[in-house]
Amino acid sequence: MTDDIKTLTARLAQEPSSLAFLELGEALRRRGQLEAAYKVARGGLSRYPTLADAHDLMARILGDQGDLAGAFDAWADALRFDPMRIGALKGIAFLYFRAGDVPAALEHLRRASEIDPDDPTIPQAIERVASGPSPAAKPGAARAAPDASATPLEAPPQGAHTNGDHGTMLVDGKGLRLHGTLRGPSDEDVGDRVAAELAGVSREAARTSRLLGLGTWEAIAVESPEGNLFLVPPTPETLLLTVRDASLPLARLGLIAERAAREAREWLARHG
Amino acid sequence: MIPADTALERVTQVPGIKGSLLISGSDGLVVAERLMDGIDGRAIAALAASLVQRLDRATNGAGMRAPTFVHLRGTGGSVLAAPGRGDLVLVAVATVDANLGLARVKMLDAVSQLA
Exposed site from A91, A168, A180, A240, fewest CB < 10 Å? Predict the structure, then answer.
């Protein structure tokens, strides 16, 4: 055991409620002691479940362990507790890049760039992502990706679009379904019923945002015990609803919904 | 159990929260509020109640129970709503750089402990 790890371990033993687990977990991760790092991070998370740094640490460790879906979820959790967390934005961008989704990767990097315009690594990453294929498609080029985690990521995140999928549905301003399906608890199609209830939501959201000085409305997230709903307006006249199990972190559902909105805009352009 | 004032204070302490209020979800009336100057509590209450009602109906239509948390995100900030027991809804208005994760946790905690 090296001196710094010894010191940090002793500090954590002395003060189990301190934040020393963050440094210790990272030190262990950097030395490749991933199982030990994971245990330290898990212990820290149990004490500080809302600490974005702890989720960020866990994401890096899971990434190193090859659990990319887990890393994605942990970074999504980090963003949930700190939407301006640049490490998480870069990490998720990296995973999207690995999965070959360049637009989503760029979107997250640009968001990171807006938060910290002085970070020179972000424009470099944007340039690399914009100019080349994903490292997944180009073996041996993993380091060309945004170096948010410096992890040997091998494959795209799994299950990003299948976990607890209740459906995605595009609705017009009059409450009529344009495209997609929504499944109820008994697997019945509840799309038309829900579409009808969504008729005034976009207008209501726009009115609320305008009157409260919140600018243009971008999204509505709704949490329910049985599932989470995410609403985005692909165009001013339409509403896209994405519903997933409550077990899927809401921030991740937001990412799925953003991607679905892009596809919806393309679909509308083709069929409109 | 905690009184409404305590619940509102806990929420407004979160960085970026401009104010919070407790409203009646069915009629959109303010029950208690803690808002920065210049923010119209009655308007927030009416708008938030209306939006939560609509989303409640949509959620029910999907075969799910009533929402436990709603987040409307705009380009210049957010409105957060946590329906509680009975008819009460805890609402917060947040700036664009607010710690929304912390606000959500505080609101869910507060609304579950409301007296």
Answer: A180
Residue A193 lies in a domain: yes
**Does residue A132 carry a pLDDT above 70?**
no
Q: Which of B35, B42, B51, B72 should we substitute to test contact with A (largest number of A Cβ atoms within 10 Å)?
A: B72
Return the H-helix or E-strand segment holding A220: strand A217-224
Assigned domain for A156 exists: no
Mean pLDDT for A202-210 is 89
Q: Helix H segments across chain B?
A: 4-12, 41-61, 100-112
The CA distance from A51 to B2, in Å, is 25
Amino acid symbol at B32: A
- Domain match, A137 and A238 both: no
- C-alpha distances (whole Å) from A192 to each of A167, A237, A259 are 13, 17, 23
Residue A136 and residue A246 in one domain: no
What is the domain extent for residue B95? Answer: 4-112
Interface pTM (ipTM) of the complex?
Answer: 0.95
Model pTM score:
0.60
Domain range holding A121?
A: 3-144
- What does the pLDDT look like over A220-265, one tens digit per residue? 999 999 899 999 999 998 999 999 988 888 888 888 888 888 888 8
pLDDT in the model for residue A272: 67
CB atoms within 10 A of CB A180: 18
Q: How confident is the model at residue B13 (pLDDT cuts 50, 70, 90)?
A: very high
In the predicted model, is pLDDT for residue B77 greater than 70?
Answer: yes
Identify all chain A residues contacting B64, using CB atoms and an 8 Å cutoff.
Answer: 185, 224-227
In a domain, A187, yes or no: yes
How many structural domains does chain B have? 1
- Number of structural domains chain A divides into: 2
With beta carbons under 8 A apart, name residues in chain A contacting B51: 201, 204-205, 208, 220
